[in-house]
Amino acid sequence: MREPMIKTRVLEATETPEGWLLGATDVAGIAYRSYLSGSDPTAVCASFSDCLLWHREVGKGVLAVTSDTVGAAPAETSLFAKKRCIFALRNGEDAQATVDWLAFHRQFGVEAALIFDRSDPTGAEVFRDALEAALQESDPGIGLVVIVTASRPMGRSGDGDARLASLAPAAPGHVRRADVSDDAWHAPFAETVLLETLRRRFLGEASSVAFLNISDLLLVGRGGENAFDRAEQAPGRCVLLEGREYYPWRLRRGRTQHLDHVYLRRDEARSVTRWCVAPTALADPTVWRN
Questions:
Q1: Is 120:152 a contact under the CB 8 Å cutoff?
Q2: What 3 state SS string does 81-135 have?
Q3: Distance of alpha carbon 4 from alpha carbon 9, whole angstroms
């Protein structure tokens, strides 16, 4: 049995006078520096006034691009070069659900996966060990899985754990709770600049990238094409994906599997939007969003 190759990386955020620097990546002699929410764009630009090429405010963070590469980590885009990739932010999905998700998307020619695990360092270690064990039991056919974590939480400040059923967007009013404690590690995702960080560090040379949750299953289009086909046929253009939220028909003891999700609420008005893109043809100032 061929076991997927697993690599792990950690983004060590650094506190600077301008704000928290999530990471800096050296791409062919140009540094892409990602600052988290609360950073001062004016101060960031001023600190690199002699070498700033351009900057963008991404969500509530800042992306600064400079000709000064001091302190920037080398890009690892060769890991995903010319590969079809799936890219996800993990917020509590278990190892077996992740293996099932990887195996399902192999049918679309997916060769590699990048998973950003939003857990704190202890939780991230537990997930990594569990995923390695699960992959030894079941081969999803994916040749490379890179798991990335960060030393700072990526959730919205002041919000509770988004995994709680009572905080689900479609939860009935009578189950919502006002006394949920803050949990920045698992709160709704807020640091959009993270996507740009991971693009520059890992995914810039991929043939195509689909941004999905581990709970999302990509389907074949009406004409037999899939999102990767369409993205690669129109390089530089974003293929928008729209999905529906299905709910488990019943809750199993221990865990809920993808196959349990067969129930669609009649009054469900929400839709889920994702995207797929061929990144090598994107204009440099283009940024990724969740």
A1: no
A2: CCCEEEEEEECCCCHHHHHHHHHHHHHHCCCEEEEEECCCHHHHHHHHHHHHHHH
A3: 16
pTM of the predicted model, to two decimals? Answer: 0.91
Closest CA to 279 of 82, 123, 135: 82
Q: What is the pLDDT of residues 237-254, one digit of tens each?
A: 999 998 888 777 776 676
- Alpha-carbon distance of 75 to 81, in angstroms, equals 12
- Rounded distance between C-alpha atoms, residue 200 and residue 210, angstroms: 15
Rounded to the nearest 5°, which phi and psi values hold at 73? -80, 145
Eight-state DSSP code of residue 283: -
Question: If DSSP codes are grouped into helix, strand and coil, which group holds residue 146?
Answer: strand
Query: What's the CA gap between 228 and 216, in Å, rounded?
Result: 15
Query: Would you call 174 helix, strand, or coil by DSSP?
Result: helix
Question: What's the pLDDT tens digit per position in 32-60?
Answer: 999 999 999 999 999 999 999 999 999 99
Within 10 angstroms of residue 92's Cβ, the number of other Cβ atoms is 16
